[in-house]
Specification:
30% of the residues lie in helices and 19% in strands. By secondary structure, it is an alpha/beta fold. The strands form five sheets. It has an eight-stranded mixed sheet, sandwiched between helices. It has a two-stranded antiparallel sheet with strand order 5-6. Strands 8-9 form a two-stranded antiparallel sheet.
Amino acid sequence: MASQVYFTNLRTAYNNSLLTKIQHLVLAAGLEDIVRKGGLTAVKLHFGERGGTAFIRPLLVRPVVDALLKAGARPFLTDTGTLYVGSRGSAVDHLNTAVLNGFDYSVAGAPLIIADGLDGADEISVAVNLKHFSEVLIASTIVRADALVSLAHFKLHDAAGFGGAIKNIGMGAASRKGKMAQHSEVAPKIIAKKCIGCGLCAQQCAHGAILMVERPAGVAAPDSSVAQLVRIDRTLCVGCAQCIHACAQGALTINWDTDCAKLMEKIAEYAAGALKGKEKRSLFINFLTQISPACDCYPFSDAPIVADIGIAASRDPVALDQACVDLLNKSAHLPSSRLEGEKHYPDKIRALYPKLDWERQLIHAQEVGLGSREYELVEIAGNKR
């Protein structure tokens, strides 16, 4: 059965601003039906990495917050810490980055809460019993929220093909350990030539999985005075990735799983866990603006590959993401972007990432019951394109 996906273009007029159109869109998509009076509502979004510029502008988040407040909800803006070391690794750094990028209370109209706590360890295990996971580790604040609104900047991704609603709540709602479980099935990788033998990672490991050993002869070191090297006992490592964030030298890094199809399936299963218990109390909104060729987690944003398309919303995250991919592929590419020249690109994701079967994300999301790839696009009345 086809799910309804509501869409508004970006044309505006004196009496119909984009802020007004966003409110009309979310109300048409059923925002008032998902919230309870006084219910704590998580507005899950990406606050942007320092240096990035393609994330959703805080000013455009405000109409969604205002609509939630008018419906009687108690909204808060939230995201989780990153697995990699960047400007959003801890709650303190993350909040500082969010404010730097404009997500101040006076602009967005709601408080900011980092969903997995100070160091990414505030998590709740949620049973899913699916292909890759019997249980998933979701940020505690997301689990405890009464309702969930996903605000995602739709863009391409070099491992998942694209990032939309499914990835925003799958990877984005996972704790640090949950992110590690999606990206890798092994312990962190050691880069010996960067290790200075300080032992800080061993002090941070709560499982006793890290030891400092004598550096073997012939193993590269930062300088001749470094006599020790970190070693990980893989039988004790739980994959929490705390050591990665503890190492200022970057001597510990993610042991990336290169099976991207598996990654996409894991993202879908984590999304199912994030929505468990809130299947009827969730709404998904994708901004098809500044559609960049890579993830917003990079400290930069490359030129968009198409002109801005619009904003779409649905109660069904699978239908929404499918509609957004279709809208992207129907749009003319910008020759000034990574899709150069006058060539026609019927599949813009495969044009940039030919080895990625991006559809696997949508196929598995449908298989695990997140929604349907069949949709009806309902355009909200407004200014003509």
